[in-house]
Amino acid sequence: MKFVKASVCLSVLLALSACSEKETVEGHLSNAKTYLSENKVNEGVIELKNAIKLDTKNAEARFLLGKLYLELGDGLAAVKELERARTLKYADNKVLPLLARAYILTDADADVLALTDAAQVLSSVEQSQYFAYKTLAALRLEDIPLAKASAEIANDANEQGVYAMLAQAYVQLAENNFEQAQTLVTRILTIDSNLPDVLMLQGQVATLMKNYLLASESFKQYQQLQPRSGVVQLLLADALLKAGEYLEAEKYADAILASISGQPFAHYIKAMARFQQQDYKKASEHAEQALSADFNQFNLKLVAGASAFHLKNWEQSHHHLSTIVNYLPTEHQARRMLAVSQLELGLVDEISATLGDFDAENEDDVQFLSSVSFKLLELGATNEAKKLIERSNQLAQPDANQNARQGILKLMMNDPSGIQDLKDAVQLNPEFIEAELALAFAALQANDIEQAKTIANKWQEKYPEKAGGFNLMASIHIKLEEFQQAEQQLQKSLAIEENNVFAITEQLRIARLQKNETLSKERAEQAIALYPYNNKVLRHYFGIYKNEQALEKLADAYNQDKKNIPKAMLYSEALIVLSELNKAISVLQAFEHESKLPKRYWQLLSLVYRQKQDASQVQSTFEKWLKANPYHIEPVVLLADFYAGQRKFDRGLIVVNRAFDYHPDNLILQLVKMQLLLNSKQIEQAKQSYNKLALTDINDNLKKGLLGRIMLLERKYTQAVPKLESFYTAYPSSQNAVYLTAAYLGDNDKGKAVQVLEKHLQKEPENARIKTMLAGLYLDNDKNKAISAYTEIAKQQPRNVVANNNLAWLYLEQGEVDKAFEHAEKAMELAPQIANVVDTYGKILLKKGDKRAALKQATRANELANGKDVDIELNYIEALIANSRNNEAKTLLSALQPKTNAQQEKKDALLAKL
């Protein structure tokens, strides 16, 4: 072991009295000795300093001053004066033993050893004293053989003398023979109870033997004998701290810090004492100061982490506790603190390692695991929550509280077995009202009306003086849309508990469900007067009025507590409804730096930006949401869909693949990934994903749809058709209608493709996409239907370029040039850079007889098409001929290579014109 080293760095301001001309060195020395004999230390110091001032080489004055400093415990000052006395040839037999001790106080162990040769001239008693100090110096330098040899010499020099026993005690302590060391110390103190070095050793031995009261008493006696010793204050404060005397220990730490403000051990004492007094702010401050000085004790880090935890400084708590968690017992409270800190910081993947083999052994353990599970569910970390719930279900004896908590947590995870847990809780404790209430509403949610009614009837019979049973029965009747019976139950509830908020809001809900506007407003006014700041009442109130006056009610509630997130969200929702989007953003952004914001917050913020059509902010909001809550599925899906809408499928896939780190088996993510792979036509990867999905329990029609889409991409149209038919029948969306139509067209069954679109249009008569596809199919064999379809589309979407351009062409073919021109102009206004639009416009101008304008547009169309569209080039040549530019027309016609029969026929007709 290593001994505590004495290191004293205290400065003392001494007022030096002026020497009169008549004063002599001898006079000052005489005065000093007199003062010292009277225990007037300060006066003695002044006289000795005055003597030295008159004669700097006075060895006796130096020796006496050094001895005095040593008796005060001021090692540095003692070394200075005793070394000077020795240099001035003061007697070694007096100086050496004292100088050796001064070196011990200043940790100058090598200097102690260097005095060995000079010590040979000392008397036996003096030698025993010196070699005792040499023993300690050798031990501190970890030279055990030298220490033992020195102890032997001390003993030989003065057998059974106090210093010989002190040397042996040092050796015994070094060998961890605490009892033997203590016996020797006791024997010495019996001989001389005021030996400082023995008292110091007794304090150290007592500390190691955990006898902190004895240690503190020893250090107190040492301090009385050596008042200028700095190190003993620290040792004393530490002993008092370990003895549970926190306030007394703190006084010594305060005294040290008053002189040395950065002393780390004193800050450690303060941190420990303040923590015991539950002054976590001060405990944290002192712990941080000690740690910043590299005082990295285990207990200090524990106090720093625990104090930060109580102050809800999660990052700091995690920083300190994570470094010591591996050394903590499984059941240690700090492990729980670290787990909660990790939870608050979203470091869910670290929680399992932190809790290690922590198992629920009592009710407190179960409650803790349930609480963490609940928080994990809030974060979306369902798998991690399930693991902890399993651990919390290991109590030997069944417990109603445990069953109730477990049941509620399971229901939160959509696990219906939670209802059985609640039933078990009620069976274990029939008086467990909260569990029975949860069971009743769970049964109601699961449409188990009989179970809910049984509980409601029981409550009404057993607790007729309480409103709960009537409120529950009212909820059952509302669920069954038996509003009159529900009203009766609520009236009974209000008769028992006047103006209870549940009954008031349920009455209001009934009026709204019945769409009774007058009654709804009447009840809303009553509710808002009674509960002006209740969120449920406020939501109903605004839902009824949806005007500025109603908004003022929400604004008032929000202004009463601007840090209340639910109220801020309610207020922002209302602002969005009234299109006050910038104000809604301002309200929501006030919370952007809060941790663990609810899903609804992010949903509202992204909704505002979507309504403002601010794509960059929509993207940014999804990304912030995902960063803040990596266990939420919603931001992953929304961000992936955002990228898919921009056709940035690879970026969407990156987002989804990263999310698998948090949700490795999540079916929704697998389906989103599958959609992205299909949309980006990554066939092989889509096949791999399908093989995994095929093993899951997703709907068979969904599996057929995914496989059908893969076949569609592979152009296996015949195999794709039956798969996509089943898919569309099960999920008749417009997108699935498009997939099925594409399969029929690929399979050369245009008639069935038309039937699919026509049938779907009956379900969604305003679906412009389906109308556009259907009109395109009509183009080949039923121009009138095509015109009718495109006309509807143009009315529904006046800025639809395809509809206007195709109508122009169709009307041109039917000879209705004016109608054709009307739609061609509209298309040109909307898309003047699309080659086909410009070509159509030019063709109609030519038909109207405006040859020069027609040639101008035909030229632009051909340039936009880069000469790669045969039909557009033929129309350009036709315009050239109409403007008598035959040579150019001939040159172009001779180089033109038609791709279809219709193009060849037109080329021949133009050649004939030439």
From TrEMBL:
Q: What is its main location?
A: membrane
Instruction: Please state where this protein is localized.
Output: Membrane
Q: Tell me which SUPFAM superfamilies the record gives.
A: TPR-like (SSF48452)
A single GO BP? protein import into mitochondrial matrix
Keyword annotations for this protein? Membrane, Repeat, Signal, TPR repeat, Transmembrane, Transmembrane helix
Give the signal peptide range. Answer: 1-20
Give membrane topology per the record.
Single-pass membrane protein
Give GO cellular component annotations, separated by semicolons. membrane
What family, per the record?
A: Belongs to the Tom70 family.
Q: Tell me the protein's name.
A: PEP-CTERM system TPR-repeat protein PrsT
Q: Give the molecular function GO annotations.
A: mitochondrion targeting sequence binding; protein transmembrane transporter activity
Q: Which organism is it from?
A: Litorilituus sediminis
